[in-house]
UniProtKB/TrEMBL annotation:
UniProt function note: May play the central regulatory role in sporulation. It may be an element of the effector pathway responsible for the activation of sporulation genes in response to nutritional stress. Spo0A may act in concert with spo0H (a sigma factor) to control the expression of some genes that are critical to the sporulation process.
Lineage of source species: Bacteria, Bacillati, Bacillota, Clostridia, Lachnospirales
Entry-annotated residues carrying 4-aspartylphosphate: 52
PROSITE patterns listed in its UniProt record: OMPR_PHOB, RESPONSE_REGULATORY
Natural source organism: Dorea acetigenes
Keywords: DNA-binding, Phosphoprotein, Transcription, Transcription regulation
DNA-binding region coordinates: 126-224
Protein known as: Stage 0 sporulation protein A homolog
All residue ranges annotated as the OmpR/PhoB-type domain in the record: 126-224
Residue ranges occupied by any Response regulatory domain in the UniProt entry: 3-116
Amino acid sequence: MYRIFIVEDDKTIAQTLMSHLKKWDYEVQCAEDFKNIRGEFEDFGADLILLDIGLPFFDGFYWCTEIRKVSTVPILFISSADDKMNIVMAMSIGGDEFIEKPFDLNVLTAKVQAILRRTYSFAGMSNIIEYKGISLDLGDAAFTCQGKKTELTKNEFKILQMLLENKGKIVSRDDIMERLWESDEFIDDNTLTVNVARLRKKLSLAGHADMIVTKKGIGYMVKA
């Protein structure tokens, strides 16, 4: 289920968008603290952002720039401002699409579906898994947080990848060890514990000390 974060200060429009997108089985959250859009986005872990330009405190251009510091998540700008300069500005600072108010909800849905399909449907086109400000590079066995890159060992990388691919679900220790055995390296229960501890230390140094949750006697999970 894809997650969509709506940043729109008109509550009627925001609720209409939320209700409509939920009918398409998307998980949707509307922004509440317009002074902390980036923080809410990182906590939610959205797969796509619908971002209005005219907002309280800071405009959509500002928040797009802030989000681009930590994420490449697709951003669809929504605005009643229809002049070409706003469109150019939105695209030049990292926006992916632009739709003008008032818009047809079916047209909006088609754009959302196209962006999500383009971004996530083809594994070969995207080698990044993102979660609350962390970007795991599948092609480089490393994660980046706030511009700082942290290298991972082969086992640490596979553990983090598996947990992020199953965020919100408990991954059993047996399943993790089975994944690690694919490299022809036997991993026992104690070795797994050591690898998880080392991974946690690296995540902690990056500001995510509580990212991996232990489910005693079962396994581990990353909260959705």
